Each structure stands twice: as structure tokens, then as C-alpha cells.
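Exam review. A common question shows you a sequence with its C-alpha cells and asks you to describe the fold in words. Practice with the pair below. Do the first one on your own.
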Amino acid sequence: MSAFRRFAPMLAIAAAAVSGINPSRAAEPAYPARPVKVVVPSVAGGPIDTVSRLVSDKLGARLGTGFYIENKPGGNVQIGSNYVAKSDPDGYTLLTTSPAHVTNPLLYSKLPYDPLKDLTGVAMMARVPLLVVVNTDLPVHSVQELVAWAKAHPDRVRYGTSGAGSTANLAAELFAMHAGIKLDHVPYKGAAAVLPDLLAGRVEMTVDTLQLLGPYIKSGKLRAIAFTGAKRVPALPNVPTLAESGYPDAVAMSWLAIVAPARTPQRVIDKLAQTTTEVLQENDVRKRIAEYGMEADVMTPAQVNRYFDAESQRWSKVIKAGNIHVQ
């Protein structure tokens, strides 16, 4: 009996080798073995938060443990991102993020972390076309009329966004660059803060999500001019895109993705990525994301990281051309 005990570990390793199981992998604990923290770098109720809660609940149901949200807003996603970047790379602290993830290094002279080195892509969740809307007193009903009016009235199209360097700011500048017009940017502390001035006519235009602007469009208080995405959005099927309005190079999408600390084990990232893909293929999930004015999107971890690199290069040109900077 003592001889068997002495040789049992070696026999187990030999059996694992014969069966094709990596002995070191066989000893690894199952993931996830405890609840997973999902950091959302924005306030509760916004687009990132809404989709993060939906996907996290579904991940928890499929993987048999809780995926709970912890909001860490501030610094244009910097506070939450820095927290996750400095967390243990074990898969138990994740971050859901947006384009600020790749544009912050282009806008700020110094960050406490490197988004593209200290964090790595896990999965895409959704693409988010933005919506160009105007105050109803502005005599424009289409992209063509907006461009004509802006050219005829230089320096008189003021647009508000959630802040300098925001996705909305970059999307508007991209459109202005290709349309050959000048738009006067007025930054606010948050997207919702733009609305009182837009409704009162103190700014003429904004660019933001359907989730925020939809109720005002449906009530007739604001006029939708175009979506910034590549195709129309089912929730507002009569609103064209910038591409079909003659500006295909002005297509701009926000997005929502999951990232993890760099050096997180690949097996953990792959499991999260595969499960997220399964979640995003559920009909009810796709329907709810579509109701938010977004489109569920699936990418592998490698595709996510390549997308981040491409987005960084693209927005770098817009930021330089528009002389956009953050104080």
C-alpha cells in the first residue's frame, strides 16, 4: 500500500500524458472559482453600464458564478482603467470600456497606465452609431442642408458634447473635416448637460447616442439629421447615415468592449471570449442591445487588440487635424 502511495502521483501524471491532458493544465483550478468583478468606468445608467450589466448577468448564468458591476467613473475612463490595469492578472477583475480607451493616450500628455500595454482585449460587446441632431429652430432637415447652412453661416454652428476629446467631439470633427465646414465645439461636463442648452437654442447641434437623444426626437423637441454608422438603425429607420448622405469617410462608431489586465492567462481570456460570444448570440440579448440603438458585435481577443491599434491610428489623425487637446 505504501508503495502505491509513493508512485500514485507519477501514475496520475503518466495517465494524464497518455490521455493527452497537459499535467500542469490538469492541476490548474477551474475558472471562474469565485465571483468576478466587472469595473465600469462611468456612472450607473449610461450606455457602458447598461450593456455591461446585461452581458455580466448572462456571463454569470453561463459560468455559474456572479459577475458583479463596480462603477468607478472619472477622468474620461482613467480612474476605472487604472484600477484594473494594476489589478492581479487572474481574470477576477475585468474592465468594460469605450473609445476613450484608445484615444486617451492621444489626448493626455501623461497617463498613470498604458491602455494598450497594461490591458488586453477580451471581447467586443457592441458597436454604437452616434446620432447627429439639431435644435428644431435650425432650418435644416438633412446632412446636405446642414453643410450648406454651415458654409453660408461660418462660426454659427455650435455643437455641444460631453467634453473635449469625447467620442462625440471626435466624430463631429471627422464629419466637419470631410464636409469642409467649421463647427464650434462647446464642451460640457457630461452628455446630459448639453440638453438644456440644445433645447433652448444656445447651441445648435450635438452628437450622441440614441439612448440619450431618442426620447427628445420622438417628442419632436430635437431633429435627427443622420447616424454616424455605416448602416441605418432599426429604431429610427427613416434617419439616413452620413455615408449614404455623401460622406462615407465620416463614418464613426463608438463601441463597448471587455478588457483584462495584461498577463492574464490565455486560457482565462479564451474562456471569457468564447462565453461572451455565446451570450451575444442569444436572441434576447441582441434584441435588447438593438433597443439601445446599438449593434451586438463579436470579435476574438486578437481581433479586439488589432481593432484598438487601428482606432488609435485613425483618431490620431483627427486629433492632430482638429488640434484637439485636453487641459
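Now try the second one, then compare your answer with the model answer below.
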Amino acid sequence: MRVRAFLAIAALFPALLLSQIVAAAAETNRLRIAQQFGIGYLPLIVAKEQKLIEKHAVSLGLPATEVTWLQMSGAAAMNDSLISGGLDFATAGVAPAILTRDKTRGRMNITLICSLGSMPNILVSNNPAVKTIKDFTSTDRIALPSVKVGFQPIVLQIAAEKTFGQYDKLDSLTVSLPHPDAAAAILSGAGGITAHFSSPPFMEQELESGKAHAVLNSYDVLGGPHTFNVVYATEKFTADNPKTVAAFVDALDEANSWIKANPTEAAKLYVAAEHSKLAPDFIERIIRDPQIDFTTVPERVDAFADFEFRIGLIKEKPTWKELFQPGLHAKNGS
């Protein structure tokens, strides 16, 4: 009887091994990732250059994963690619990503994969009379990448609600202008642009020039550090590929640790990979900024969702755990 039992148990091992192989093979063997431009995407750049996703996929028992990297400017093109099946992971600011999730429910059904880090955005002005947002007048113009629904305009609306009791008080002063063009306008004093709400490296370039000063810090508006950019995917892809998603997050965690331990090397890698004209020591200063934290953990995402729900931008108010995929729930997010 004991011999039979032993043989019966031993016979199970090949079947169990085969089932694990089949399960792993059932996941995708390719991953198509779109990123936008800027230092906020440094963890993705490190993961790409050091092939960390491929490394962690193998460590989780997945077959060799082919990772394709795309650079796109703007969420519209990425969302179209997600819907058509031409893209697996998209990236965007957390505020517009929450809006996209709500607006595409029933069609695309997206879930947020992880944060790309907590990073302040600063509103600067070249108008000496503007010390706070209370000082803006009808002659001022505030440049943003997009009006009303982008990351910076939503933070500006939160600030306006707290200051004036009217969230859209400053909307009439905002104009859409790409960050590079807005920074050039601030530094030259031309084009009628008197303020620019941006992220690194543009805000540092403007402030270090001495031609502009800080008016508002997004960390002050939100009450502390907050997530800036996120990665998102369809719920179907996430459910079908849990190990691939886990390998991706593990890869970014390793990339973040490497950035923090090697800021000089990370700056050089960024400049080389992005063919940037910025000096490596300038990038290194940004990486070393104590306000910047490259992390996959969501921070103060609930505050964005709450505001967007209250002003009617989204129909439902999700918690951060409802926004992000289950593999992230054990992290100390907010």
C-alpha cells in the first residue's frame, strides 16, 4: 500500500510541472509599453536600458518576454492603441488617468498598474506682481500642456477652490502650450505668457534662470507628496497576465532602488538614452531633490479622485485600491 501511494504521489509531479508550464505559457510573451517624455519617466528608462522587465519575468517562471518600447506624446493616441490592442501599458498623469478610467468604463475598462513616482509640479511666473494665485489679473496668461482636464489644470483648480471657493476661477487665464514652448516664453518674456505650471526639468530651468519665481507648489495644494504619473492597462490584460504585471512592478521597484543609490549614473543614463541636451549634473540635481521620490506606491491618489468626483468630472468616486490592480494593494498607498 505504501509503495502504491508513493508511486501515485510521484506520478503527480510531472503533471503539476506541466500545469505550471502551461499556465506560464498562457501569459503573453511580449509586452508593448508607451511612455511620454520627461524625467518623470526615468524608472521606465532604467528598466528599458537594464532589461529589468525581462529579468524579472524569467525569475517568475515566464518564458522569454519581448519588450517593445514606444514614445508617444499625449494620452489620446495611447488610449486608441489600448482599445485596438496595439499597446499593453500606457502612461499618463494620475489625474487624467482617473478621468480616462471613468470615461471609458464599459468600452475599455482600464486599471492602474502602479505609480511612477511622487514629484511636485510648480507654477512659476515672470510677473513680479504675482506672489500668490490671488495676484493674477485678467492680463495674465497661465500656460499648461492642456486646459481643464490635464494634471496641472486639475491641481490649479484644486488650489482655486481652496483659495477662492470656486474651482474654475482661473480657468479663463489658462492657455494650452507644450512645456518647451511655455518655458521659452517665460524665459524670453514674449508671447504674453506670464506663468507656467510644469514639472521637472522645465520648472528648474525657469527658476534657476532668475527670470521667474515660484507661485505655487502642488505638494502644498495636495497637503504633501503625491503621485504624478502612472502606468495603466486594460483590466482584461491585467487579469490574463498577472505574472507579467508582477514582473513589471518588480522591475520598476529595482529601477527605483538603483536610481536612489546611483543618482550620478542615473543622470548620465537619462541623458544618453533620451539624447537630451541637458547637462548630466543638472539632471542629477533633480534626481537628488528630496521632494522627488521614485516609487511604485500611490500617494494621495484619493485626493484627486475625490476632487474630480465632486466637480462632476467622473461619475463614481473610487478608492486608490479600486483604481489600482490587486498586486499593488499590499503596499502602503493612499
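Model answer, second protein: The beta strands are 30-35, 66-71, 90-93, 110-118, 122-125, 142-144, 174-176, 195-198, 213-217, 227-234. The first strand starts at residue 30 and ends at 35. Full marks require stating both points clearly.
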